[in-house]
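FAQ

Q: What does a record look like?
A: Structure on top, sequence underneath. For example:
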């Protein structure tokens, strides 16, 4: 039961996420991707070094256009199995510096996953940490998820450090668990559950503007 003594909304199957855009953080705007973002997306999603440890190959203009017309066009979540990809824009300049994604895996277990891809030219300023923190607010506070995970290639130390800065616990190191881009790779599994999220924010939301990404 909830604190009010009523059955939580998620137990009635009423979970959904329909953000008002843009979603604002201290320096960033999270908003749906647009066709006009194609060139900015290609500037980092087309780089081999950006794609090295993520489950896609460098993207050309055609593939980005297909994604923009397809799965990246979603602006809300109303059923498990869906994902919501949002562009990360600098509020001060309008530059698109990356994108983040929230996967809704299970309604029954209230489970989800986050992912993130950023332009390396904007690294070292805390933008990725700030953006994923805002995404976690949507996951826990708006959608009502109980548990959010991040799955990271063990060689991607910067991504693992970002998850740790967000208060996510490393729960597993899976050794050579996946044939990935021509070789066996290790996977690090991080997670955060709702009571841990709430404990982090009892004294107010911590600053997420610092960090290496």
């Amino acid at each position: 039961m909830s604190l009010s003594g009523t059955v939580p909304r998620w137990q009635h199957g009423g979970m959904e996420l329909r953000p008002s855009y843009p979603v604002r953080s201290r320096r960033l705007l999270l908003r749906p991707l647009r066709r006009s973002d194609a060139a900015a997306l290609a500037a980092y999603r087309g780089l081999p070094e950006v794609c090295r440890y993520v489950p896609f190959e460098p993207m050309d203009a055609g593939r980005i256009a297909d994604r923009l017309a397809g799965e990246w066009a979603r602006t809300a979540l109303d059923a498990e199995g869906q994902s919501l990809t949002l562009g990360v824009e600098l509020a001060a300049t309008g530059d698109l510096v990356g994108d983040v994604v929230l996967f809704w895996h299970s309604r029954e277990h209230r489970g989800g996953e986050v992912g993130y891809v950023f332009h390396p030219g904007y690294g070292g300023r805390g933008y990725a940490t700030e953006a994923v923190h805002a995404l976690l607010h949507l996951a826990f506070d708006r959608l009502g998820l109980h548990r959010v995970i991040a799955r990271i290639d063990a060689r991607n130390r910067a991504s693992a450090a970002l998850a740790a800065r967000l208060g996510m616990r490393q729960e597993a190191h899976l050794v050579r668990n996946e044939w990935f881009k021509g070789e066996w790779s290790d996977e690090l599994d991080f997670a955060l559950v709702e009571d841990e999220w709430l404990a982090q924010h009892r004294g107010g939301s911590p600053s997420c503007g610092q960090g290496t990404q």
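Q: Is there anything notable about this one?
A: Residues 23-200 form a domain with the Aminopeptidase fold (CATH 3.40.630.30).
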